[in-house]
Structure formats: structure tokens, C-alpha cells
Amino acid sequence: MKKNIYILAIGLVAQLAVYSPGYAQKKATAAKTSASTTVKKSTGQVIPNDPNVKIGKLPNGLTYYIRKNAEPKNRAELYLATRIGSLMENDDQLGLAHFTEHMAFNGSKDFPKNDMINYLQKAGVRFGADLNAYTSFNQTVYQLPIPTDSASVFKSGFKILANWAGKITMDGEEIDKERGVIIEEDRQRGKNAQERMQKQMLPLILKGSRYENRLPIGKVDLLKTFTHDKIRNFYKDWYRPNLQAVIAVGDFDVNEVEQLIKQNFSELTNPANPRPRLVYDLPDNKEPLVKVITDPEQPYNVAQIMYKQRGGVVKTTADFKKSLMYSMINSMIAARLQEILQKGNAPFLFAQSSYGPFQGGLVPNINAFQTVVVAGSGAALEKALTAGLAENERVSKFGFLPSELEVAKKNISAGNEKRLKEKDKTPSASFVQKYLNNFLEGSSIASTEYGYELTKKTLEEISLAELNALAKTLITKDNQIVLVQAPEKDKATLPTEAQLLSVLKNAGNGVTPYVDNSINKPLLDKKPVAGKIVAEKKIDAVGVTELTLSNGIKVLLKPTDFKNDQIVFSSFGKGGTSLAGNGDFRSAEMVSLIPESGVGDFNPSNLNKLLAGNTGSATAYVSDLYQGFSGGASPKDLETAFQLVYAYATKPRKDVEIFNKNIGDYKVILGSKNANPNSVFADTVQAVLSSYHERGMPMNLVDIDKISLDKAFDFYKDRFADLGDQTFVIVGAFDVDKIKPLIETYIASLPAAGKPQNFVDNGVNPPVGKISKTVYKGLEDKAAVELYLHGDYEYTPENNVQLEALNEALKIKILERLREKESGVYSPKVSLSTGKYPKAHYYFTISFSCAPANVDKLIAASLDEVNKIKQSGASTDDLAKFKSEEQRQMELSLRNNGFWLGYLASAVKNGEPLDLVLQQPKLMEQVTVESTKAAANKYLNENNYLRFVLVPQK
Q1: Is the pLDDT at 338 greater than 90, yes or no?
Q2: Exposed/middle/buried for residue 39 (C-beta within 10 Å: 0-12, 13-18, 19+)
Q3: pLDDT tens digits, residue range 259-284?
Q4: Bridge partners for 558 per DSSP
């Protein structure tokens, strides 16, 4: 188990957010009443709109935003935004705003039934990954990334948006078919500890507001029984142009796009007597609201404190200054909490304090200063919460130090410089989000140049005194909310409501000023003795230069112009944890804690302070079969990144406190994980897939006790003592000749002994034959299914492209069958995993959640679709979709630094020619109906079939 505690904690924080149908809640335009926490009215100049975006309004009230942007090339982002959501529903329409969003993909005037999805898939647009939508309390937004190099496809994009805006047919048969899909969406996302606790939490945090009874997913009983006129009325009342906006950003002609908008949307009309679009508020609370919630399946003890405040969006330079100060405050508090988390006696597993939108933007113009802590037990929660709140009080009483402010300013300044340098390489999706926020919230749309100058000027203006004064306003006397979510088994040891209020009142007693323990010394004491480049070779087909260094290391250099200010790199050498003996394997598995502990004399906190304002980053890793480095930087900071590589190789840090803190945290995680049905299910799948081999089994508490820092540290040193067989891949904005001196200084000087390196096959293989496992765990009417079809094979490009075609065809058919025809699932997944080493093997996986009563029927339906492909091959239509999507994705990938970084490393690892990517069109020509039929009969072999099912406990 290699999970970092930070990743765990992010999940815990997300767990506190109010339920929504699979998307982050967004804020929306609203005017708020006054309150005791009202912030003084903003002053300053209004931030002007970016002149590069054309903003207009049709006579019917529809707003549009148009911007030409050539990144990515031959692509556009088309959005339809509506200022309506679940808050607009009548009591007999609960859930129908979200239901309407679903119906947009199930038939409209110009695209009956599923014609829209089929048309777009053939044009290379992926359903779900590209084509998508979301519904929230105040808004519904549709997104359509689309190619612009096909005039007919591009023009059709605006027709599709117009169909969503006012031409959805709401066919009765389609409505009834979609009921089951949405009920399954509710099942997939809910019916767990999180949902049960939220049902107790929502009446508290949304007390007295319309939000409390308007969750976007709605009520299942109503979703099953509502009459068709209810959803048709909702669509008629609310989908109207004066509440809608079209956003178009991409590689196109602005005037042409404006005409397309006028042609497609001008005919839309508003109701003769439109219903008023009301604004809903969240009442203040003078007295603290406190709730302790427990659940048998909740694994961790979590406490959260919220201080609600009235807020608003950034419209003026004064607003911007305050938002920038809040950002700095958040980063400085986070740095202090990180320092505590590195200590062996840290009172919490995780802690976070920050100011921002209340519950992630749940209610427009309501912000909050929120603190979350996670404790190792119910008995330790009061102490953990006290410690977390004490840091807030320390900030309030004594403020921040000049050295902390300097770090925060340097980091913001570095990001500001990077944005300016990348102004012509900014992806269209980034602009779309700004315009979406402007329409829905009224926030400003500054140009990149204006934002750069404003940020630079504001950073110079912000003083420590005014920042500390703002920090004092974070903790308010009213609008306080205290929440505890904990395991049922810890109920007796949890703090009472009275104790929680006492912590809230007294946490700051006895706090003293913060002391900055920065280390003032360079990362490296001296530059290493440089090595030499001893050979150079060009691979012109892919624009790569291969260097051989005097220590044996190979370096692949691919300069690009995809970004102006980005260089990324990674390296690998054979070995990894496969070389650890069975007795030391668990210690080797935790070797990632060595680079996570910092490097040399610098723990992570001190390293962050040292590198403030520097974009250079790097770390070391050890995986199952390889070890190496990864990192990146702006060109000006590449030397720092390479210095980090050298330091991680030659000056690893052995930090007992950090190591023991992490091991202690892992013990809590492992001791709690069996409360979660999905965790138990995942452990079962992992055990079976590894044939119960000791090296493949999930880690348990007995394994944790075997872990030794000394063994982990020695294993790390051993893996990085001889780096002569490493291959580095460097991609980005650099000149080959100019980068060579840095490579000679920091990479050619890495230690090497010239010994051949390799990994070991330890025999961790999946089982042969048919195996079925059913796990009985969970309280709700919810099942999970995972089906595996797998086997050994010959790893070749020709075989792999056939497997990929099969995967896409099966993905399409499983979605059509299980969701559209059976209405039995929400989002079934079909995936393909292939690997060449240590033994070439493939896995097809079909997975979904559903009602327990439907498990057998839906498994049978899935296998029926597998057999149909074996009998007839993939259909011509499905192969056309596959080839089009692959072509479109490859067009994007070939202009992406991250793609080339992964591709080149993978090609070298697998012994493939570096220009293999250029052969993709020829490989695609080999994919036919007959070839997929042959491949299906060869690879979709039910002789190696694993069936895993999770159902509620009996």
C-alpha cells in the first residue's frame, strides 16, 4: 500500500462536500442580503474585459462570447451555459433539471434518439470524455469540443447547441427509458456512508434555505413516477434564450462564428409570461451549529469548522487585491500545517485551513474560512481539532512573518511570469472557464497582459501589516458551523457538542508566535565534477537527438514549440522493487518515503522555502520494475531541477520523524479500511489477480510491523548507486546545444559502476481458468461488478492495435446494452490493460454498479455482447468511430509535451522504434471487421475469466 496520506486526506475533504451528480458545484449570479459578517464594499477600478473576446447579445436575450485561439490547432470549445438548475424546480419536479440534461442526449428536433451521439463519435468526439454536461443548483452547462478543420462538422456543432437550447423533443418512451439510468446514477454515486451522513449534514449547513431540499439528483420515488408533462413544463419554462449563453473559443474565424450563432439561435423565443428567475439565500446563524454524525462504514474521524462570511466575485482591482491576499494567507497556513505534519508527534493525520467559497461554491456569494482535521481515533479527535484551530488563532494573534510573505510573493510572481510567457499557448478550455464564470457569476474577464501587470503591481502594494489585518477577520463570532463525521464504533469516545464548543472557544489559549526554521544554504554544496557527451545520434523522423554520456546514461532530447515555458523530463533504469527479497519486500515497497522526506539537509518544508519562486522540480521514484527520476521546469530554472536530480541520487534524506509519522498514519488507514465495502472488494480483487502471491497481496497491519527505515533507506541507496543504465527523456522548450552543458554537469556526473541492470520476474501472475468471487459487504441496496478476460500474448504493435479496436467496440456495445437498452447502469466501464514485462499479458475489464437484483442479468448481457463480437466482429460503424476518435486524439497528442515524454520512454522500455507513432495510420488500416472477429476469438477467451461481485452483507 503506497498511498500517500495527503491523497487520503484529499478524499476525506471531498467527502465533506455536498452531494452532486458527479461534478463540482459551481457558483452563480446572485444578490445577497446584509449580515453581521458583511465585508466592506469594494473600491478600486473596474477590471476591463479582455478586448480579444467578442461579447454580444441577440434580440431574444441570448448572450454570446467568441474568441479566436489556436491552441489546440483545428479545435474549438463550444459551450451552452444556462442560469437554471435544481433551485428552479417545483416540488413535483425534484430532480428534473438534471433529468432534462440527460434528455438533451436522447433526441431533439434535428437529431432524433441517439443520432447526435452517433454523429459526433464518427467525427472523433468522445461521449463522456469530450461531449458532456452537468447540472447544479443554479446552472446547467453543456460542453462540446469539436474539430474545426471539417466545415460541416464545425457548423453542426452550433446546430447541436441550439437543439439543446430549445429543441429537445422529450419523447415519452425516451423519458421512461432514462428513468432507470438516473436511478442507477443515484445508486452509483450514493448509497454509502457519505450519502447517509450528508442526509444528516445538509439540514444543518443549509438550514432554512431552499438548497436543503433541492439536491440536483432529486428524489428517487418522484423520478420513478413523475408524469411526462412535468419535465416538459420545466424545459418550456426555463430553457429560454434570456437565461442562456453560447461560448465559442477556438481555431476559427470570429465573424463566421458570430453569424453561425445568429443563424442557429435567433429563432429561439422566450415565454410570453416568463417565470421569474429568483435568487435564493442562505440564512445567517448567530449561535454555532453543531452536529456529530457517525456511520458504521465511515472509516475516519473527521472534524470540520466553518466560519461563514458574505463575499462576492472579483470585479474591481480592490476585489482582486483581496483575493490575492486570501490566496497568500491560504498558502502560508498550509506551509505551517505541513511542518506540523512532518513531526512524529503530530496531533492529526491531516489538517487543512483555507478561505474560499463555502463548501466549494455551494451557495453563491457565501464564503467561509474552513478548517478540516483527521484524527487517528475518536479519542484523539478533540486534541487534533484543538491543534488545528490553534494554528488559526496563532495567525490571528501574531500574524505572519516577513519571510513567509516573501515566499508567498515569490511563488505567485513565478506563476504570473509563466502565464504571460504562455499567453499564446493557453488552451481554449481555460478561456471558456473565464467566460462561463462571467456569465454565471459576473466575475471579471481580464486579458492576460492586464492580469500580469495588475498582479505585479498588487504584489508590490501588499504589505505585511494589511495582510495580517485581513487574517484577523477570518475567525468570526457568528455564522460558525462545527461538524464531526466518525465511525460508529468510535461513538463513545468522540467529543460531545459541549466539548466541541469549548475547543472552538479556547483553542487559542497559550499559543506563541510562529518561528521560521528556514535553512539558509544552497541545495548542493558544490557543483559536481562534470562528465562528457561521448556520442550523439539524430532520429530525424521524430525530431529526437540521442546522447550517450561518459557514465553510460542515454539521453533522448526532443525540443518542441508546444509550450513556451515548459520542459519536462523523466528517466528509468531496470530493477525496481522486484530486486528486493521476499523478506525485505515490504520495506522496499515503502521506499517512496525516502524522497518524500526531502533531500540532503532539507525536509519538505525547508525545500519548499528554498525553492520559492523557482519552477524547477524533481523527485526520485522506485516502481515494481524500474527506478529513476521525474521533473520539470521553465527553461530558466532547468538547472535547479537537474540539481535536485543529482541531490536525490547522491544525498538522500533519512528522516526518522517523517518516516515514523507516515507509518503511524498507514496503521490507522489499514486499521480502518475494512469498514468501507469498496476497500474490502478491492482487496479481494487484488489478492485473486495476484494468485495470492505474498508480494501481490494487499498490505495489512502485520506487514506494517515488518517495515524498517534502515532497510528502505539501504534499498533506495542501492537502487541509485549505479545509474549507468538510466535513460533520460527530456521534452520541451529548449535548444539542444544550450542544454548540453547542464546535462554534462548534472546527469553525466551521476554515479555509475557499469554493471548490467535488470528486473526479476517474481512470479506474481493472475490465475488461469475460471474464478468467481462474491464479497458480502455493505448496508445498502447496491452491487458492484468487475469481469476480467485476460491472457498471455505476443506484445507487438499489430496485436496491440487489434486489442485497442476490440476495447473500443466493446465499450460502445456495453454502454448501448447495459445503459440504453437495459436501463440497468449509469456509467459502465470497459478498459484494456497491456504490458510487456515481466511477462506480456493483457486484461479486458468490464465493470459497473447496479441493483443487486440485476447482477446476473447484466453480467449475462455483458457476456452476450462479448460473444456477438466474437461471432461477427466489430461493426463497421463502431470501427469508424474508433478510427476517427484515435485520429483526432493523436492529432492532439502529437502537440503535447506530456504525450511525447511518455511515448518515448515507453518505446525505449519495450524495444520499439521511436518512429512507431508515425506508423499509426498504417496500423489502423489493418483493423477491419474480420480482423476484430479473429482478435475477439483469440483474446476474449472465457477460459481465463474472473468474475467479482460485491453485494450487501446478509
Answers
A1: yes
A2: middle
A3: 999 999 999 999 999 999 999 999 99
A4: 731
